[in-house]
Amino acid sequence: MRSRIDIKNRRASVQLLFDKVTIVGKYEVNGRILILPIQGDGDINVTTDALNVHYTVDYTTEQKDGEDYIVPVNAQSDFTVKKASFHLSNLFNGNEQLGTELKSEATNKVLNDEWDKFVEAIKPAMNNLISEIATGIVKTITSKIPYNDFFPE
After folding, report:
1. Which of 9, 14, 43 is nearest to 133 (CA)?
2. Which domain of life is it from (predicted)?
3. Terminal C-alpha separation, the chain
């Protein structure tokens, strides 16, 4: 982990490197992934190797109870991965014409064979999600600790 805080310009940045990250959750998609038409919702499992996240946030201050508190604004994130693998269930909403189990597995295979293109396709949405999550964590912390406790004069 590396971090840098520019007090004069009110900007903080953090870089985090994770050897392996596994994300399990739900997904919903209606459109195309790569060249594949997909409509479905279900379980998703994503595993990444060497996930490198860079998060930058500007901040202002706000007075509360006679003290200044940091308020994060204008957050941005970017990430890279060395490798990623995916598994999405119910890719075709159980539509027998579009999605047999064989087609779902074949689609998952294409996503994994072309993982780098898939990552690039979903990167804007993932960067927004990372920024939202990180900013939520920052807000939770900075709303409880006064500015002068972070940066004593």
Report:
1. 14
2. Eukaryota
3. 26
Element (H, E) at 150: helix 147-150
Which CATH architecture group holds 2-150?
Answer: Super Roll (3.15)
Q: Which residues contact 146 (CB under 8 A, 6 or more apart)?
A: 67, 68, 69
Q: Which of 64, 88, 60 is nearest to 74 (CA)?
A: 60
**Taking the alpha carbons of 55, 59, 62, 66 in that order, is the dihedral positive or negative?**
positive
Residue spans of the domains in the chain: they are: 2-150
Question: 50-74 burial, b if ≥16 CB within 10 A, otherwise e?
Answer: ebebbbbbebeeeeeeeeebbbbee
For the chain, the residue count is 153
Give the Å distances, CA to CA, from 137 to 7, 32, 132, 141, 143. Answer: 20, 32, 9, 6, 10
